[in-house]
UniProtKB/TrEMBL annotation:
Organism field: Streptomyces liangshanensis
Domain of life where this protein originates: Bacteria
InterPro entries to which the protein is assigned, alphabetical: Acyl_CoA_acyltransferase, BioF2-like_GNAT_dom
Designated name of the protein: GNAT family N-acetyltransferase
Pfam families associated with the record: Acetyltransf_6
The entry's keywords: Transferase
Domain BioF2-like acetyltransferase stretches: 152-292
Amino acid sequence: MVAPAELSEEEAEAWRELRAKSGAPANPFMEPEFTRAVGRVRPRSRIAVVRDGDEPAGFFPYETGPLGQGRAIGRGVSDCQGAVLRPGLRLAAGELLRACSLSAWEFDNLEAGQDLFVPAAAEEFESPVIDVGQGYGAYEAVLRAQSPKFLRTTTAKERKLGRETGGTRFVFDERDPLALRTLMGWKSAQYRRTGRRDRFAKEWISELVRQLAVTRAPRCSGVLSVLYAADRPVAAHFGLRSRTVLSCWFPAYDPEFAKFSPGLILHLRMAEAAAAEGIGLLDLGRGAAEYKDALKTGALRVYEGSSVRPGPRAALSWLGREPARRAHSFVRNRPRLAGYAQRTLNQVGRLRDR
């Protein structure tokens, strides 16, 4: 067991090689750079290094909590979770948790193919994706077939935004720190406006994003994309990319320009620029949203749940987690209740901003 800062470069390279051989999409959240970044802001981060003789055969990043309760590294903001193991490695989940002194390990975005932990999943979700592997033109053709009104309306709004503001421009990889601060401000306001917990009010999340914004590695780089009207930013997104995958993370826009749907315009331009960069997949992340339904070409599977070792500490962990999860699931799977809940959150947001 090592802290992320103690992971040697030799071990990190073995991690990258194992991940490349896994056959899973090259999601940057599963790379050592992300775990190292979380380790700098979350002191209870650890990595279990699994060895077969002298050779590294697997890596399991996690965070420790009270009563031996563990959680996925960066849980709450990480959009892809799991262990990185050599194919065919004979290892049981309980054996791994016992070696880590964990009574349980919680996850909320476990990737498909994590055979060690998927049997412990309580729920399965879609993570919508945009496939631009055949180029942006091919993606536009898909949109014309499945969402013709959406594409026509969005591109018309883009032209209108340009006419009324003196022109638009898009920067796929913006390096200006001010643009990142603007995005974080918009996102915080959106969280408050919709009655949700402001993630950026937590310093560790804000600092994690700032650190990843300057991370430049082939398999995990921060990418800030900005849509400008003249010289004014009107929509922005911060995410992580590998050579072939862009994990969409924090999108937001200036509400003053809401009538132009700048967030949708931004996503189309991101898809176009990503395809030009050789990226084949944009992962929009778990969670239902109308804009995701309009943009997506397919979906990956992710899982939520907890892998546990039998015992009193695991029972306490279950009592602290499972009732709330089941209540959320009950509401989420009933559209009428979910609508009531969203309207309540919006009302809370309006009261909060008064």
